[in-house]
Amino acid sequence: MRLNGKTALVTGGVRGIGRAIVLDLAKAGANIVTCTRQGGEPATTLEKELREIGGEHHVATADVTRPQDIDALVGECERRWGRLDIVVNNAGAISHVPFAELTAHEWHKVVDTGLTATAMVIQRALPLLGEGSSVINIGSKVATVGLPLRVHYTAAKAGLIGLTRSLAKELGGRGIRVNLVAPGPVETEAGVPDDVRERYRRMIAIGRMGRPEEIATVVTFLAGEQAAFINGETINVDGGI
Fold first, then answer.
1. Which UniProt keywords apply (predicted)?
2. Contact between residue 80 and residue 30 where contact means Cβ atoms under 8 Å apart
3. Containing domain of residue 180, as a range?
4. What residues contact 205, with CB distance under 8 A and at least 6 apart?
C-alpha cells in the first residue's frame, strides 16, 4: 500500500492509535501534519521517528475544540501543499462518570472533542480535498454496544457513524470518500490492568487485545487507491469481540 506524495492531516497523532497511524502513513510515503494538545516528550520522539522515515512532516500543538486552532492546523497544510489527500480524525477524549453525575461541562468536553471537532475539521479542510481524497474517522466498537459510565463517549462515537454515512453520500459526487474505523479494545502505551486484559481476552474471539499498528494498517488501506470503491462504511477492527 503506497501513498507516495500524498498529503495527510491526522488529528491526535502523538500517542496510541493516532501515533501508529501517523507512522504507518509516513512509511507508506505520505507527508503528514499532525497535532497534539500538549507538546512534551511524545511529540519530540514522534518528530525524531518521522525524520528517520523521511518526507515532509510537522507536529503542531492544537486543540481541535478551538475553531482558531483548526484554522491554523488546516492552514498549515494549505501553506505547505495547497491540498489535502487524506484526513484522519483521531482526536478524542474519554472519562468514566455515572450518568447521574455527568455534568454539562464533562459532556461537552468529550462530545465536542470526539464529534463536533471531527465535523469542523472536515468542513474546514473541504476546500483542500479533491477527487480521490479520503476522510477516515476513528470511532469505537462501543458505539453499537454501549458501555456504562461512558454515555457521553458512546454518544460521540455513535454520532460519528451518522456523520460518516451522511458525508459519504453528500461528498461522494465530488470523489471524496468518507469511512469510519471502529477499533475494539487496544493495548496502548498507557497499559491495561491484568484483570481487564484477562476479561477482554475471554470476550474477544481471537483471544487477545489489539495493537495500535493493527488499526493503523486499516487506515492506510482506506487512504489508498485499493479502497477506491469503499465509501460510507464502518470497519470494525475488534478481533471478533
1. Oxidoreductase
2. no
3. 7-237
4. 239, 240, 241
For the record, the C-alpha cell of 230 comes out as 469503499
DSSP 8-state symbol, 228? T
- Does residue 67 belong to any structural domain of this protein? yes
**153 counts as catalytic:** yes
Could you say which of 27, 113, 117, 153 is catalytic?
A: 153
Residues 6+ apart with CB under 8 A from 93: 109, 110, 113, 114, 153
- What does the DSSP assignment read for 122-179? HHHHGGGEEEEEEEEEE--THHHH--TT-HHHHHHHHHHHHHHHHHHHHHGGGT-EEE
The predicted-structure confidence for 119-141, as pLDDT tens digits, reads as follows: 999 999 999 999 999 999 999 99
CATH code of the domain containing 157: 3.40.50.720
